[in-house]
């Protein structure tokens, strides 16, 4: 029995609907939205004494159920199908005396003006607005005009819909331009994603008298999990908010049916502000065999650690999920703009929502564990937040690492999962003669990190590799007491030039930074300072190098500069810094035995190969050192082919230099070994 229309236009044909209901018989047909799901929304907007009009009623049980539960009784149902009107009259005549069924076209109704307090539409608008052709839109305009005419001021048009973008946009634009208040409710799901994945929405359009010349629009959305409406500023934003909820429902449906081959990511937003509060990644591990209690777990990433390889990369999360031993692991990152009370409150807040992401076959009795590192949510303190024309919004924040260590980080919010600069903070030490604090006195809050910068500690592995690359300099060992002219392009927090300045006592360091805000950040928050041997030039690195006299003057040139253009597959350096004419300028200001060290971060394999080919054309000797667990690759470029080092000799040079750097009384990171850092260096 084929009940589908031959074309979308048949949805508006009385002949089609007569045939449909004759073939279907007395069995009720519900497009979507069962009464138990719709009831909470209908109760808000339908009162007992309201006169209600149901347009395109079909043989849905919705009117009967509203009547039977006592929601309202004065209900008029209309439809263009004579067949279904007769069926419904017979079905309700004796049981519901105050409810009526009339054969009538909603495009041309016989009711007087302002006759109803509520007009209810369940799927009728969706059935008519099947396309955006001129004739279809004209029919919808006529439908809306008739609904507006028969509704009283203060009356509500309730439209149950799947909210296709063009349907929602048309309804919102029409009624908001008429001065009506438009609110969209997401209907709470029954939980049966196998039966119907798409969420159902109810548009609530409340009629107000149109004020001539007023452009005020009141548009709101009510997600299923909250009663309080959220105001949105435009029809486009309202359509986008609904689309996000549709995508989420489809995602949950897919996750409930089968494991996901790729990691899925989604944001859960704050109910009040609408800003992201949690970022979730769903990681399935097919190799884990299901057992009694290893189906599903939630992992809360401590604040400030979401940038670490284990939590911030696909491969890291895959390794985390495998080691945790769960078939599906959902990692949860916490956002710096939000406040969190603790693990218990996060668990209470997320428990219901994360169950929507549960894997297929999860037993109903299964308790889902919440995991974390050390059982807490970490510590994050935003010390400074600002914006610059060049770098955009940025924050300086202190976060707690493993154990008792604290770190200060610079984050550009346009790329919030990447740490631009990082420094370890020193634990405060008591002054000479200062008494220890009595045990009964209040201890320092764990949320109050120390503030002094540990300048002896290089947090970034690529900085450690760049310093170790000084061993590749030609000539005698680059001992700390030997003169050394270094140019660093890209300041950030200043830890790289600071380390060279402090540990190479005869080094003269010139730093080029295009963004003056970064010089202020480095000075105020990362312990950076200028002096006789350290000078910062606020300039574009391209211009600065181009203006230097074409004569060799630097022993080492280091590029650690990020790209502001995130559309390119290379985030460090900007593409102009690795073009052949500019690289040739770099070579002219480098001494023959000098070294050019470049931090390359490139995810585009073809672009990366092109960059390496250009570097080989300019520099005859090229070494590379990949940073484990990161995209960073450090390139050591030498202007002369005679500078090739034997690995054994290079290791010996590294040990000599490190021995000279490790002076008594001078702090040194015991985990940092120059020879080990250079072991992985290879010639390209």
From TrEMBL:
- GO MF annotations for this entry? methyltransferase activity
Xref: PANTHER family: EEF1A LYSINE AND N-TERMINAL METHYLTRANSFERASE, SAM-DEPENDENT METHYLTRANSFERASE SUPERFAMILY PROTEIN
Query: Which Gene Ontology cellular component annotation is one that this UniProt entry carries?
Result: cytoplasm
Which InterPro entries does the UniProt entry name for this protein?
Lys/N-term_MeTrsfase_sf, Methyltranfer_dom, SAM-dependent_MTases_sf
Tell me which residues make up the Methyltransferase domain: 51-171
Disordered, as annotated region = 425-450
Its name, as the record gives it, is eEF1A lysine and N-terminal methyltransferase
> Highest lineage ranks of the organism?
Eukaryota, Metazoa, Chordata, Craniata, Vertebrata
Q: Name one GO biological process term.
A: methylation
Q: Where is the composition biased (Basic residues)?
A: 434-444
Q: Which Gene3D superfamilies match?
A: Vaccinia Virus protein VP39 (3.40.50.150)
Record's family? Belongs to the methyltransferase superfamily.
Per UniProt, which keywords does this protein have?
Answer: Methyltransferase, Multifunctional enzyme, Transferase
Q: Which organism is it from?
A: Eurystomus gularis
